[in-house]
Amino acid sequence: xxxxxxxxxxxxxxxxxxxxxxxxxxxxxxxxxxxxxxxxxxxxxxxxxxxxxxxxxxxxxxxxxxxxxxxxxxxxxxxxxxxxxxxxxxxxxxxxxxxxxxxxxxxxxxxxxxxxxxxxxxxxxxxxxxxxxxxxxxxxxxxxxxxxxxxxxxxxxxxxxxxxxxxxxxxxxxxxxxxxxxxxxxxxxxxxxxxxxxxxxxxxxxxxxxxxxxxxxxxxxxxxxxxxxxxxxxxxxxxxxxxxxxxxxxxxxxxxxxxxxxxxxxxxxxxxxxxxxxxxxxxxxxxxxxxxxxxxxxxxxxxxxxxxxxxxxxxxxxxxxxxxxxxxxxxxxxxxxxxxxxxxxxxxxxxxxxxxxxxxxxxxxxxxxxxxxxxxxxxxxxxxxxxxxxxxxxxxxxxxxxxxxxxxxxxxxxxxxxxxxxxxxxxxxxxxxxxxxxxxxxxxxxxxxxxxxxx
Length: 455
Known about the structure:
The chain is of the alpha/beta class. The chain has helices spanning 2-12, 19-49, 62-79, 100-116, 130-133, 178-181, 188-198, 255-265, 278-288, 304-311, 331-339, 352-363, 382-385, 392-404, 407-420, 425-436, 440-454; strands at 58-61, 83-88, 95-98, 122-128, 148-155, 204-208, 212-220, 238-241, 247-251, 271-275, 292-296, 321-326, 344-347, 367-369. Helix 14 (392-404) runs antiparallel to helix 15 (407-420) and helix 14 (392-404) runs antiparallel to helix 17 (440-454).
């Protein structure tokens, strides 16, 4: 799975691929992620039933966390041509303390189900203090505290029979009709309920068959005082880093895993050396003097943890940055890696963005970003994009598609424009880029400029 997802990420960076090829890679990646989710769900349920699941609260920025979730499911809703609304009902703390991973897992399961089972209408995601979010829920008589926040997901989907509501949180129980049920294992709600209970709450639901459902959960999230919001991560693609070329030693007995990391990092300007096991790492580190070591923990012979212990005993390597890599994401594994001197832990399959964020954080790097044709700060002159006049009929057709939010139709129209005239390629490229990013507001602005120029 690490190889499939890793190489898919690498191939998707190739700007020479055609749109159908890019779409095919996206499908491969989505299928891989889906399979990984199914595996993770089964492992999570096993840990919960064996009482091995633990929560690890950390401080994180709540608005950024919620915005990222809302953005993800807004895109999924647009793909189904249903609406998605995110509403902050009352002021929220900037920083909170909770197990961010498990909170994301709960909300992602609820939002995913809402989108999946809704074919008409849409989904509304409300967040705020319980009394502000809803006055209709049966549990409202509880004392409100400043730390308690309600997460409520409403949909206009297929709904659930009243007699079935007690069953939906059972393991392997699939809600809804067969057409929708094939998309999952029926573990999501069971795991989410168990996690909510571990966090001192319960997921509650009310539903009307054929009219939709409302799921909500009230969680105690202690605020973090004096929280300073970090700069939101840029959505621009990193193409390199400023400053001296940094040296990275990749340690993994699996050649596919090493190759993936090399192909991710070498194009960004890193000097890469590979080691096939712990002893090889010790030998090469002495001469190579890496700035950072990416260490797989499970290897034959001297494993990653023992290798790190030995590295820290060498005077010239005791301060080198080390990041542990492992498919075993049990918290004890993370703690063991930190205890022997790792600065951080990265689960496999490695996500490119997570890896780059760790490199920036621990090496103090400053990224060089790809400049997009369109940004919120600098808007392109329509005359620079339209080298020849755009037929009025094509502008109107595009305008209608944008009004409907028909992303697929907009992409097809962009393809049509390219075939119509080679000089329309810059304009079509701009349209395609904005459509793929679901930036309908910016698309409308370009259409309005085009219409104004044609008058």
